[in-house]
Amino acid sequence: MLFWFMCYLVGMWLISGSAAQSCPDLLPVDNSIFVAEDVNGQVLGTYVCLAGYHLVGEKTIFCNASKEWNTPTPKCHLGHCPDPVLVNGEFSSPGPVNVTDKITFKCNEHYILKGSNWSQCLEDHTWVPPLPVCKSSKYNRNKCKPQRC
Ligand SMILES: *[C@@H]1O[C@H](CO)[C@@H](O)[C@H](O)[C@H]1NC(C)=O
Ligand SMILES: *[C@@H]1O[C@H](CO)[C@@H](O)[C@H](O)[C@H]1NC(C)=O
Ligand SMILES: *[C@@H]1O[C@H](CO)[C@@H](O)[C@H](O)[C@H]1NC(C)=O
Q: Which residues form the signal peptide (predicted)?
């Protein structure tokens, strides 16, 4: 925690020391930690969401040549990992997901699951194995070799 706090202080000092004269002050993002570093004279900010929240938007931000932040500040939304998405299918756990939560996937009728039928939310806010997709089984049939159709 002390480390993050020091990063925050150094970050704020960097921001106020250089780019801040030009770029507007950054608003704090709820449930996040902000780390800034000086990369070749340019201030690069990185937002990291706290445990239990995931980032929506761009993780890094910098003060660009027109003295504007290159992208809007991100948000940290409830749920340790991003909300799972499975078009033409369903998954076992809707709603906010906790770290180490496992979900399983199932495709609708006439769709075939490509990828893993389960995934786990990890400490680093990612789903592993990656989320699968549901492919139309019709699409598969069209792709088969002519002599086998
Ligand atoms: C700086 O960022 C703003 C906001 O995204 C954008 O409108 C502008 O074109 C950018 N300027 C440069 C030089 O990239
Ligand atoms: C996440 O974990 C907390 C604490 O263990 C629990 O209270 C909450 O119900 C969990 N949320 C979900 C969506 O499982
Ligand atoms: C996931 O796939 C494995 C192997 O293909 C299978 O044994 C298992 O029952 C499947 N689990 C679910 C929840 O569909």
A: 1-20
